């Protein structure tokens, strides 16, 4: 094992142990440290749909899809291919919901049968405070951060909103900003301006990972002023 391979394996093992704890029944999760050469993990059909020429983006996409394909095989899907849609979202086999994510170091994936989970979203972030310029635009009045380590609370909030958006977009087709998603980290739930509700599972170490599952039905679209209070 090369000098760079051992730390990558250790990082994967540590994170997988944590995300395996948070995954609800019926949802499979996995992770992979992004390595040099991971762009070669893209299948030809997948590579044709990923327009980015940036090497790191293609490496991250290859890592995430390699994980997801392994999870799909465990679900009984033969020879899975995960192309990229025009919107940028991954295209899953019939009857499957899933989500991919990566930061600069780690890629993660989650998949499930739609019979057991309506729509999934996942996000991964470094376990570090959110940069100030982003921290200024993520929170809204309706967010609840009680009970979360303040060092990582805004990073977790950011990650939760990313995961909820990924879970809600396939169902509603609506582009949402941070101001359109209210999150209760204490209650591990969220709601969007379209009325879509989501349940959350998350860990803070060794990286911040949030898994979101959107509800099957949306409530009536909410009255959503700039400073929203969703009446948790």
In short:
This protein is an alpha+beta fold. 28% of the residues lie in helices and 23% in strands.
Shape: globular
Regions with little confidence, pLDDT below 50 for 5+ residues: none
The helix/strand class is alpha+beta
Largest sheet: 5 strands, antiparallel
CATH class of the largest domain: Alpha Beta
- Measured between the Cα atoms of the first and last residue, the distance is 51 Å
Please give the CATH architecture of the largest domain.
Answer: Alpha-Beta Complex
Sequence of secondary-structure elements: HEHHEEEHHEEEE
- Count of structural domains: 2
Radius of gyration: 17 Å
Number of helices: 5
How would you state the average pLDDT, rounded? 93
GO biological process, one term: enterobactin biosynthetic process
Family: Belongs to the P-Pant transferase superfamily. EntD family.
Cofactor: Mg(2+)
Organism: Rhizobium miluonense
Provide a descriptive summary of the structure in words.
This protein has helices at 5-22, 44-47, 55-74, 132-135, 153-172; strands spanning 27-33, 96-102, 106-113, 119-126, 181-184, 189-192, 197-203, 207-214. By secondary structure, it is α+β, with helices and mostly antiparallel strands. The protein folds into two domains: 1-117, Ribosomal Protein L22, Chain A, CATH 3.90.470; 120-232. The strands form two sheets. Strands 4-8-7-6-5 form a five-stranded antiparallel β-sheet. A three-stranded antiparallel β-sheet has the order 1-3-2. It is globular, with a radius of gyration of 17 Å. The model has no long low-confidence stretch (mean pLDDT 93).
């Amino acid at each position: 094992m090369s000098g760079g391979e051992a730390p990558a394996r250790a990082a994967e093992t540590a994170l997988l142990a944590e995300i395996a704890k948070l995954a609800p029944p019926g949802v499979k999760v996995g992770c992979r440290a992004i390595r040099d050469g991971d762009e070669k993990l893209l299948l030809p059909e997948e590579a044709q749909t990923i327009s980015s020429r940036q090497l790191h983006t293609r490496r991250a996409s290859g890592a995430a899809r390699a994980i997801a394909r392994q999870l799909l095989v465990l679900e009984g899907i033969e020879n899975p291919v995960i192309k990229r849609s025009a919107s940028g979202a991954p295209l899953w086999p019939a009857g499957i919901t899933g989500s991919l994510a990566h930061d600069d170091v780690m890629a993660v994936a989650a998949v499930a049968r739609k019979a057991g989970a309506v729509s999934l979203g996942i996000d991964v972030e470094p376990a570090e405070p959110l940069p100030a310029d982003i921290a200024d635009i993520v929170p809204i009045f309706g967010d609840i951060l009680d009970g979360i380590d303040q060092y990582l609370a805004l990073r977790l909030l950011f990650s939760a909103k990313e995961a909820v958006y990924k879970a809600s977009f396939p169902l509603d087709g609506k582009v949402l900003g941070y101001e359109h998603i209210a999150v209760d980290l204490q209650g591990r739930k969220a709601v969007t301006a379209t009325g879509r509700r989501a349940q959350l599972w998350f860990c803070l170490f060794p990286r911040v990972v949030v898994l979101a599952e959107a509800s099957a039905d949306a409530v009536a679209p909410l009255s959503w002023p700039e400073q929203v209070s969703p009446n948790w």
